[in-house]
Design a protein that fits this description.
Keywords: Membrane, Transferase, Transmembrane, Transmembrane helix. This protein has about 220 residues and is α+β, with helices and mostly antiparallel strands. The protein has helices spanning about 15-25, 30-40, 40-55, 60-90, 95-100, 150-165, 180-185, 200-205, 215-220, and strands spanning about 5-10, 110-115, 115-125, 135-140, 170-175, 190-195, 210-215. It has a single domain, classed as Gcn5-related N-acetyltransferase (GNAT) (Aminopeptidase). The structure holds coenzyme A.
């Protein structure tokens, strides 16, 4: 891994960190759309709309137009769902990274730097619902720097910090469509603990789930 340095976050990294987080999240929009299209409920709804309109209007154009509009609506809903999550994150922990991650015990935020540029991020803090574990968050690597082992190094940084802080395990949540992230975590020894729907109306309809992973550090000894 040439020219990559992992260091603690500094105030001047703020904008790049937010941009890396936002672009990393938005990358999952196309796969989320494909996921929705694969749902039997979506396919049935589109088919019923198409058949009902073609029978009632005797026109081919109207049902094609209606289905196109429905698909555009579905895409907008997915964009809305992602934007809600991105905005909430930017207003919460990413609004003041130093305060959230650097001024509290058992928390930290790191960046990966290549030739003076921030190209990756990761953070950890005590998990909200399981404070006996640290939670890995905000993993993202710039597209141009993928496949070089940067995420693996960031994962190791979090595991070392967790071990040194005396916690027995790292947990994290990732979405069902983040397949590169799932491969990364499984490669790093994380075990899938459970999969559950996001508790939001639209997410439930489209069967959009989160996966909880755990890395047991005591097992590794
Ligand atoms: C997931 C992500 C962080 C991986 O970053 P990366 O620096 O390219 O990952 P690495 O080079 O360290 O690869 C680590 C391992 O992950 C797996 N992996 C990563 N990307 C993969 C891909 N596209 N296909 C298959 N396996 C992949 C491999 O097992 C790889 O190890 P190997 O090269 O020894 O086989 C990056 O794709 C990303 O930022 N995605 C968008 C944001 C995101 O999804 N974040 C996670 C939110 S929970």
């Amino acid at each position: 891994m040439a020219n990559i340095q992992i260091r603690k976050y500094r105030h001047e990294d703020s904008e790049t960190v937010k941009e890396l987080f936002t672009s990393g999240m938005n990358e999952h929009l196309p796969s989320s759309f494909v996921h929705v299209l694969k749902q039997p409920l979506t396919q049935m709804f589109l088919m019923v709309t198409f058949c009902a309109l073609i029978t009632s209007s005797q026109s081919f154009l109207l049902p094609v137009l209606a289905v196109t509009l429905l698909l555009a609506g579905v895409r907008q809903m997915i964009v809305y769902m992602f934007n809600q999550y991105i905005d909430a994150s930017l207003k919460n922990d990413l609004n003041d990274i130093s305060e959230t991650y650097l001024q509290k015990n058992n928390s930290c935020f790191w960046v990966a730097e290549s030739d003076g540029q921030v190209v990756g991020t990761v953070a950890c803090l005590p998990a909200e619902n399981m404070p006996e574990f640290l939670e890995l968050k905000r993993m993202s690597v710039r597209r141009s720097h993928r496949g070089k082992g940067i995420a693996k190094s960031l994962c190791r940084t979090v595991a070392d910090f967790t071990r040194e802080s005396g916690f027995p395990a790292v947990i994290l949540y990732t979405s069902m469509v983040a397949t590169d992230a799932q491969k990364l975590y499984e490669h790093m020894g994380y075990k899938k603990m459970r999969q559950f729907p996001i508790p939001e109306f639209f997410a439930k309809i489209i069967n959009f789930t989160l996966i909880e992973y755990r890395l047991d550090l005591e097992e590794e000894k």
